[in-house]
């Protein structure tokens, strides 16, 4: 009996936004995840930076993240809704050596809970774990807060490449993969360009395998 034909692997696309105070290491996390690089000295992000990277979950499913790395400076705060609108997931980053950065992270999380898609997956990342000797935020405190707010949580180090890929893989495994695949099979792309979707429109993700030959279209 001939073996059944194996279904082609799925490539599902989701929008991810990084939020957090300036200098907590958001851009360093993304650079490590996307390019496996780390720079000791990086200029502050202006507005937002856009990158993409994939995570293979198994032989049949790969998740492509469209990553918006937002600036942490207060003067750019008003731009943030433009980037987290219709986002499927968010990483809110704080610096384990700076308690004030955790308070800022909590403020971002409250804003996401009020204004982002109600189904958004939020991960709290305590970055700069390589500076354990200067730790000012106990991991137990952040973990308790994450559990209380139903958030994913990991401590990371972009410098040492600790838990960086694990963070994004953990998020990928929580995404509504079947909903995204079903939306594509039903003929809908499920995505939108930045600012091009109606406010509050849910973005289940895009199956890129089903759109080969078409332009990738929007950036977010």
UniProtKB/TrEMBL annotation:
Spans annotated as Disordered: 182-220
Membrane topology designation: Lipid-anchor
Gly residues bias spans: 185-198
Compartments, as annotated in UniProt: Cell membrane
Domain of life the protein comes from: Eukaryota
UniProt KW Membrane keyword: yes
Gene Ontology cellular-component terms listed: endosome; plasma membrane
GO terms for biological process, alphabetical: protein transport; vesicle organization; vesicle-mediated transport
Principal subcellular localization: membrane
Keyword annotations from UniProtKB, A to Z: Cell membrane, GTP-binding, Lipoprotein, Membrane, Nucleotide-binding, Prenylation, Protein transport, Transport
GO-annotated molecular function: GTP binding; GTPase activity
NCBIfam families: small_GTP
Name used for this protein in its record: Ras-domain-containing protein
Origin species: Tilletiopsis washingtonensis
């Amino acid at each position: 009996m001939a073996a059944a034909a194996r279904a082609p692997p799925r490539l599902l696309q989701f929008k991810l936004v990084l939020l957090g105070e300036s200098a907590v290491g958001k851009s360093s996390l993304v650079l490590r995840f996307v390019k496996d690089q780390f720079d000791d000295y990086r200029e502050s992000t202006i507005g937002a930076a856009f990158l993409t990277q994939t995570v293979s979950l198994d032989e049949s499913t790969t998740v492509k993240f469209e990553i918006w790395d937002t600036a942490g400076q207060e003067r750019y705060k008003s731009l943030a809704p433009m980037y987290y609108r219709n986002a499927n997931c968010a990483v809110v980053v704080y610096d384990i050596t700076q308690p004030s950065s955790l308070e800022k992270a909590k403020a971002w999380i409250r804003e996401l809970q009020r204004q982002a898609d109600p189904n958004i997956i939020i991960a709290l990342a305590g970055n700069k774990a390589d500076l354990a000797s200067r730790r000012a935020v106990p991991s137990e405190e952040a973990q308790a807060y994450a559990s209380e707010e139903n958030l994913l949580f990991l401590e990371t180090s972009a410098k040492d490449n600790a838990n960086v890929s694990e963070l994004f893989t953990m998020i990928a495994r929580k995404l509504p993969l079947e909903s995204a695949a079903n939306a594509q099979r039903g003929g809908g792309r499920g995505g939108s360009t930045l600012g091009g979707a109606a406010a509050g429109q849910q973005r289940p993700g895009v199956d890129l395998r089903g759109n080969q030959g078409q332009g990738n279209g929007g950036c977010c």
